[in-house]
Specification:
Number of strands: 2
Number of domains: 2
Helix content: 40-55%
Distance between the termini: 37 Å
Largest sheet: 2 strands, antiparallel
Strand order of the largest sheet: 1-2
Number of helices: 17
Shape: globular
Structural class: mainly alpha
Strand content: under 5%
Length: 319
């Protein structure tokens, strides 16, 4: 049976500044021993417009179901929750790039889920409540679904979530904003999983680093052009959330029909990525870079920006 939150959940999402999280996030909250200070957090938040897509009830139903279904294997909840969260909280990338939204969701709507999913020996890291889009508990799932879906098809998202290193490493890359690159990587990762190759996460990290080092979004767009996004279709999908039923639990929902990735462009990248994977040095876990025979720095995650999508100027919220 789904769990019930032990605190009052606001009816809709809002925007909670980083400063408020820093002020009120306690060790007791991170360990699950304390409930969030609702009055103070709500006072610090800016409410969002009264639209169905910002409602908290549907989100609570999803996280409660995830905690019930996956209590024996909590990392497996990512692949189930990511596409359903994306199809429930429908928004543009500009809206999703506002970290205050994810702060509010983690602190006021589902802090118990953050603890359930990310608590280590003692507590969940603060970055899971408020952090970069590739680290924050819910932002990483929404962005994982956004960047790895193929138009309305969320099946690639399940593959992306099947290996934690895809979300932990590949999601950080600038080039992942190029959809053919994302889909070509998923095809390589699917092959790794299907062949039962040992230590697949090492191959994920090696290829992700090599792909990011070998080119840029512009370079890959020349090699394998993407189709222009269908903006009107995306906006229609967002607007349909007002009347849409709850997302299905036992089959994948459908994402926005805003254009699929051209298959030919993915095919063009596959030989290159296969070559990069064959030549990329694998990280040996537990060894220093020098002991592993590599350069004296961590080459698993190269120095990079926080993703092309989040570097663009983001307009402020209205309403």
């Amino acid at each position: 049976m789904p769990r019930r939150a032990a605190f009052d959940v606001p009816q809709s999402l809002g925007l909670l500044p980083d400063t408020a999280v820093a002020r009120h996030l306690s060790r007791g909250m991170q360990s699950g021993q304390e409930s969030p200070p609702q009055v103070a957090l709500r006072k610090a938040s800016m409410p969002l417009p009264p639209e169905a897509r910002w409602g908290s009830d549907a989100i609570r139903e999803l996280v409660d179901e995830a905690m019930s279904r996956f209590d024996a294997n909590r990392t497996a909840a990512d692949g189930w929750l990511a596409p359903r969260l994306h199809a429930t909280v429908r928004m543009t990338r500009t809206e999703a790039g506002d970290g205050r939204l994810w702060n509010h969701l983690a602190m006021l709507v589902a802090p118990d889920y953050v603890v359930w999913r990310h608590r280590g020996a003692e507590a969940a890291p603060s970055s899971r409540f408020s952090g970069p889009h590739y680290t924050q508990c819910f932002a990483r799932l929404w962005w994982g679904a956004e960047l790895f879906r193929n138009g309305p098809d969320y099946r690639p998202v399940e593959t992306a979530c099947a290996l934690q290193d895809i979300l932990n490493t590949t999601l950080r890359l600038d080039v992942i904003d190029h959809r053919p690159t994302a889909q070509a990587l998923i095809r390589v990762f699917e092959r790794l999983l299907s062949t039962g190759m040992p230590r697949p996460a090492d191959h994920v990290n090696a290829l992700s680093s090599a792909v990011n080092t070998a080119g840029s979004t512009l370079v890959y767009d020349v090699l394998a052009p993407d189709a222009p996004p269908l903006v009107d279709e995306l906006q229609d999908w967002i607007a349909e959330r007002e009347e849409a039923p709850a997302v299905p639990w036992d089959r994948l929902p459908e994402g926005p029909d805003d254009g699929r990735v051209p298959p030919h462009s993915v095919d063009l990248l596959m030989p290159l990525f296969d070559k990069l994977l064959a030549e990329a040095p694998l990280r040996r876990r537990g060894l220093t870079p020098e002991e592993a025979g590599g350069p004296p720095q961590d080459s698993a995650v190269p120095a990079q920006r926080q993703g092309v999508s989040l570097e663009k100027d983001l307009p402020t919220w209205t309403g």
